[in-house]
């Protein structure tokens, strides 16, 4: 996994690694001449992983009294809503061109921007959570 996606909390970083692997699988499927069913299955798996990951992450945020938890939670909801739309499009004859860019943009925003801010908060206030 690209080091820029590591935030320093082992459980969350492990989840990020698994999410990254599923995203790589998705991009491989999007680049091929596969039918839409495998893409849909991968999107369903990604959605479920992210839903679980976001739940864990938000729980940690609540525990450490992270001041931007509401904004972060809102970003998570936006990502899950967009993935729902992509899942629907993957079942229809919707245009999947640009899907990889859309997914990359969503996750880069969450992991690189929001999670890095959260990780800095944890490093400053809660060293016992860091690996």
Structure description:
- This protein is an all-alpha fold.
- It has a single domain (3-129), classed as Up-down Bundle (Four Helix Bundle (Hemerythrin (Met), subunit A)), CATH 1.20.120.
- It is built from four helices and no strands.
- It has helices at residues 10-31, 36-63, 69-91, 99-125.
- The protein starts with 9 loop residues before the first helix and ends in a 6-residue tail after the last helix.
Structural class designation: mainly alpha
The CATH C-level name is Mainly Alpha
Annotated CATH topology: Four Helix Bundle (Hemerythrin (Met), subunit A)
How far apart lie the N and C ends? 17 Å
Question: Which secondary structure elements does this structure contain, and how are they paired or packed?
Answer:
Layout: H1 10-31, H2 36-63, H3 69-91, H4 99-125
Helix pairs in contact: 1-2, 1-4, 2-3, 3-4
Q: Can you give me a brief rundown of this structure?
A:
The protein is mainly alpha-helical and 131 residues long. The protein has four helices and no strands. The radius of gyration is 15 Å and the shape is elongated.
Features:
131 residues; elongated; Four Helix Bundle (Hemerythrin (Met), subunit A); single chain; mainly alpha
């Amino acid at each position: 996994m690209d080091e820029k996606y590591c935030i320093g909390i082992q459980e969350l970083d492990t989840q990020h690694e698994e999410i990254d692997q599923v995203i790589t699988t998705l991009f491989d499927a999007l680049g091929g001449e596969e039918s839409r069913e495998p893409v849909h299955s991968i999107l369903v798996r990604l959605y479920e992983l992210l839903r679980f990951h976001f739940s864990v992450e938000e729980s940690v945020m609540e525990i450490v009294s992270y001041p931007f938890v509401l904004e972060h939670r809102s970003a998570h909801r936006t990502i899950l809503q967009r993935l729902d739309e992509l899942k629907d499009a993957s079942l229809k004859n919707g245009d999947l061109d640009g899907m990889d860019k859309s997914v990359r943009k969503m996750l880069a925003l969450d992991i690189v921007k929001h999670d890095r801010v959260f990780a800095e908060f944890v490093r400053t206030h809660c060293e016992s959570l860091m690996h």
